[in-house]
Amino acid sequence: MHRARKSALDRLKASEARAVLTRLLSLYPDLISAAERAAEELLAEVDHLSVADRVVRALKPLGGGDEATRWRAIEAALSPFMEDAQRRRDLSLREPAEEIEQGILLGLYRLKDDREGPMRGAPTLARELAEWVVERGQERGATPPSEGFLKGRTPEWAGLLGG
Length: 163
What we know:
Helices cover 63% and strands 0% of the residues. By secondary structure, it is an all-alpha fold. The protein folds into 2 domains: 14-39, no CATH class; 47-157, no CATH class. Helix 3 (48-59) packs across helix 5 (94-111). The chain is globular, with a radius of gyration of 20 Å.
C-alpha cells in the first residue's frame, strides 16, 4: 500500500514557517501585499468569548499563595493577552483589540466568585484587576469598555470602569 507523502509545511515549527515565508517573500516580492492582507485578516479574527475562555483557563490554576502573590501571577498571565491587544492597536485594528480587552474583563468576571481559584478569599480582587486592565489599556491608547458591554456581560461592574 502506498502512503501519501506528508507535507513538510504541516511539520514546521513557528520559527521555520516564518523563515519559509520570509524566503518566499524575498523570492516573490509581489506577494508582500497579499501576505500583509492575510496577516491583518488573521489578526482581525478575534472573539471576546473565546478570549474569556482562554483567560479563565490561564488564571484558574493560580489559586495558591497570598493575595499579593496571586496578583503578580495573574498580572503575568494576563500580559500576553494585553500584548496581543496592543499589537492590534499598533496596526490600527481597534475592534479586534477591544474584543481582546473585553474578553479579559469577561474572563475576570467569570472568576470573580470562584472560591477555589485565584480570587479565593479576595472578593474585590477580580474587580481591582479589571480596573487595572482598563487603566493599563487606556495608558496605551485603548478606549474604555462601553457601558453596553459592561451592563450586558459584567453587570455588577457597569459604571465602575469608566465606560
